[in-house]
From TrEMBL:
Domain Receptor ligand binding region: residue ranges: 1-184
Membrane-related topology note: Multi-pass membrane protein
Main subcellular localisation: membrane
Entries under Pfam families matching the protein: ANF_receptor (PF01094)
Keywords assigned: Disulfide bond, Glycoprotein, Membrane, Receptor, Transmembrane, Transmembrane helix
GO CC annotation, single: membrane
Keyword set includes Zinc-finger: no
Transmembrane helix in keyword set: yes
Gene designation per UniProt: Grm6
Record's protein name: GRM6 protein
InterPro entries (alphabetical): ANF_lig-bd_rcpt (IPR001828), GPCR_3 (IPR000337), GPCR_3_mtglu_rcpt (IPR000162), mGluR (IPR050726), Peripla_BP_I (IPR028082)
Organism: Upupa epops
Length: 201
């Protein structure tokens, strides 16, 4: 079944021998990992830590960052920390404690989900370390306000990556003009309609 994804960024999906019917409209994480290496090098940093949410997105993203940094040279990884899928109480305080073990590596590259980012920032704030770390976040943070709302001081100065986006002229008008009467060719439209309008057809 041919698939086109609007958000799947895992580098493995670029393997056309395994996923020959898969296509996407966003670049794989290897591109943003390279962009993050470029940002870190442009800032003159040579010693950083990485922080990843457990799972394909976080671990593959950090792996791509580490690989790109090796190829670029001149960049040492102080430590790579993984946030468990189901963190225990106090887990994020431990993460901040581990980051402080190599406290001179103030740059932290994050490939983490929104919730993990927020909890890392909360832990940094609670440890009175707002402003100590310089965060470089992936597209899961991007331009979103939710991870930093109320934690602006801990997030101040963060640099986040977001793939270039553009609005398609006329799409919003077209999409909002669709109804059950004029959109019969889309087999799943009635499911969307029921979900969006909370009704049963």
């Amino acid at each position: 079944i041919p698939q086109i994804s609007y958000a799947s960024t895992a580098p493995e999906l670029s393997d056309s021998s395994r996923y020959e019917f898969f296509s996407r409209v966003v670049p794989p994480d290897s591109y943003q990992a390279q962009a993050m290496v470029d940002v870190v090098r442009a800032l003159g940093w040579s010693y950083v830590s990485t922080l990843a949410s457990e799972g394909n997105y976080g671990e593959s993203g950090v792996e791509a960052f580490v690989q790109s940094s090796r190829e670029a040279g001149g960049l040492c990884i102080a430590q790579s920390i993984k946030i468990p899928r189901e963190p225990r109480p106090g887990e994020f305080q431990k993460v901040i404690g581990r980051l402080m073990e190599t406290s001179t590596a103030r740059g932290v590259v994050l490939f983490a989900n929104e919730d993990d980012i927020r909890r890392v920032l909360e832990a940094a704030s609670q440890a009175n370390l707002s402003g100590h770390f310089a965060w470089v976040g992936s597209d899961s943070w991007g331009a979103k306000m939710a991870p930093v709302a109320g934690l602006e001081e801990a997030a101040a100065g963060a640099i986040t990556i977001l793939p270039k986006r553009a609005s398609v002229p006329g799409f919003d008008d077209y999409f909002t003009s669709r109804s059950l009467e004029n959109n019969r060719r889309n087999l799943w439209f009635h499911e969307f309609w029921e979900e969006d309008f909370n009704c049963r057809l």
